[in-house]
Amino acid sequence: MTSLNGRNLTSLSGRVAIVTGGGTGIGLMIAQGLAANGAKVYITGRRSDVLQRVADAWDKTIGGEIVPMPMDVTRKESIMDAKRIFQQREGKLHILVNNAGQEGPRSLFLSDASAPQRRDAETLGQALFDNESFEGWADLYSINTFSIFFMTTAFLGLLEQGSKDEPNWSSSVINVTSISGLIKVAQDHFAYNSAKAAASHLTKLLSTEITLKGFSVRVNAIAPGVYASEMTLDIIKPEDTDIVAKGLLPVPARRAGSVEEMAGTAVYLASKAGGYVNGQEIAIDGGFMAVNPSVL
């Protein structure tokens, strides 16, 4: 059956996507994957020059196109300005990838057994209290968690409009969370891990509420393990994988994830191949959660 051909299953021809934080790292991997399979992909971020360089470098003969659309996902005004521009140009949206994020406050002494801050409970507690701030946590949650809610709600009407294009197919929201939100060790950053955990639960809340209200928009999440990004300086040597992951046990795959593995997961969720998936979170982590304490 031709409908089971891989190209038909994952084709995104005629689809329009938005990828927040699409100019670098995981967002760029996903944007290129969607475009390579035929989608027109708007990439957003606060640095217009970065977005433009990505768009200019993209080879349109591969498949779809990549279009820069500057936006700050932590500001409602910026989101609505971008929405108005997008609505005028496209009138509907098929794929929204909420990828924008940052790492935030770190307390590196937490995983260092020889650190003087770990001398006793009083010393450790005070060190953590002094090293981090309410402002730092709030900034991190704004981009890693809050932006998912505000982007999804702002574009919900356009997503529902996109679902009308084809019977038995629905628009897709893909939230990029992290295995850091699913494991039970802090990896030196309580704020990041708890914000990603909140993003995981927000994914399920949005999926359930949108579905219960009768709208044909699926909401899922991808929880990456160690992948090259600006957070990991874009290059991860095989011997550095476990240093980046900071688990109790090493990453079984003994390497970082690849562009193909990240892009392929996003394409699956956005295409007909994943059209029956709703409210789920897919961890792509090289087996990291299989050997480290997690909530799953």
UniProtKB/TrEMBL annotation:
Matching Gene3D superfamilies: NAD(P)-binding Rossmann-like Domain
PROSITE patterns in the cross-refs: ADH_SHORT (PS00061)
Keyword NADP assigned: yes
Transmembrane regions listed in the UniProt entry: none
Gene Ontology terms, MF aspect: oxidoreductase activity
InterPro entries: NAD(P)-bd_dom_sf, Sc_DH/Rdtase_CS, SDR_fam, Sec_Metab_Biosynth_SDR
Keywords, sorted A to Z: NADP, Oxidoreductase
Keyword Nucleus in record: no
Family as reported in the entry's similarity comment: Belongs to the short-chain dehydrogenases/reductases (SDR) family.
Protein name: Uncharacterized protein
